[in-house]
Write a structure and sequence with these properties.
This protein has eight helices and twelve strands. A hairpin with a 3-residue loop joins strand 3 and strand 4.
Length: 315
């Protein structure tokens, strides 16, 4: 089976623009790969990173077919196997790959991989491989492209605040997106600090939180693999397209019927509105989150004799 799987993955690797292909279990263990890898550790690092995205995508969209992460340096493509939730493919490509050609040429290969797994694996998954903290740091260090510099994998977020006119401008832009793209199920902004801006009746807190989580997990994967900045996430199911765009201090999210318009046309329409939303958000006030002194005293202060201390802020 190994030779047949490798041959099938090599067929995908031969698609113009494709750099690497890895077949991965849902628990993060790589099964087979094809591409320009330099070491087994890199394959395991890619598998464990994208496994987190696969889990979040299945939580948000249980029947998702593929998820596309786009940055300025590359694209990372996750493809769910037909009728098989235990495995998925991760494909990394050049930044200007022809996505339509990639989807068409990959279709038969996905069915072939799924067939081979059903014939030979027989529902038996090999055990997970575990890494110590030292091994994990060594693997991540291998992805650093800047010599002589330490790479830190951490993020910090600010809380955003805006006035009434800015809020109305953002809602107006969301309304224009909803009106210009037929069969829109939901359109909203999910901002840092738990701020959700939407059109009433088109979203809920769970969708906003999960969209933010999906983008956040994808951003960490792209930074780990490519030291790049994530720009767009596109997740597709049999009936829904879910677009997520990075905006200042948050994400823009659109859920739309898959058959409403051509993918290229929707991306073209969204480009204008995303630029306008970014312009408004860039003018909003940012502030670092901080714990007030009186709350710190309440949470961290030493209280004796079993008494309770109350703290309040003067108006």
């Amino acid at each position: 089976m190994t030779n047949e799987l490798t041959e099938t993955l090599q067929n995908i690797k031969m698609i113009t623009g494709v750099e690497n292909v890895v077949l991965i279990q849902k628990d993060g263990l790589p099964v087979a790969s094809a591409g320009v890898w330099f070491s087994k550790e890199e394959v395991f690092a890619v598998a464990s990173s994208t496994c987190a995205i696969y889990g979040v995508a299945r939580l948000v969209h249980g029947d998702f077919e593929y998820l596309l992460m786009e940055s300025e340096t590359s694209k990372v493509f996750l493809a769910s196997l037909p009728n098989d939730t235990d495995y998925f493919l991760t494909v990394t490509t050049a930044p200007r790959v022809n996505l339509a050609a990639l989807f068409i040429e990959m279709k038969d290969s996905l069915f072939r991989v799924s067939f081979l797994l059903r014939q030979h694996i027989d529902d038996r998954l090999p055990p997970l491989r575990s890494y110590s903290n030292h091994e994990t740091q060594r693997i991540l260090k291998g992805f650093s492209v800047a010599e002589g510099q330490d790479t830190k994998y951490s993020t910090s977020r600010s809380i955003i605040s805006f006035d009434r006119s800015q809020a109305l401008a953002l809602r107006a832009l969301l309304k224009q997106v909803h009106d210009s793209i037929p069969n829109t199920d939901s359109v909203f902004l999910s901002l840092n600090g738990g701020v959700r801006l939407s059109l009433e009746g088109f979203t809920n807190d769970r969708l906003a939180a999960m969209s933010f989580a999906l983008h956040d997990a994808s951003e960490r994967v792209v930074r780990t693999l490519r030291n790049g900045s994530l720009q767009t996430v596109l997740c597709e199911t049999e009936s829904i397209r879910h677009f997520i765009y990075a905006v200042p201090n948050g994400v823009f999210s659109l859920w739309v019927d898959r058959s409403s318009q051509k993918l290229g046309l929707m991306r073209l329409l969204l480009k204008h509105y995303i630029e306008e939303i970014r312009r408004v958000l860039q003018a909003c006030h940012e502030m670092k989150s901080a714990v007030p002194d009186d709350l710190k005293e309440l949470l961290l202060g030493e209280i004796g004799n079993g008494s309770m201390m109350l703290a309040r802020r003067e108006p």
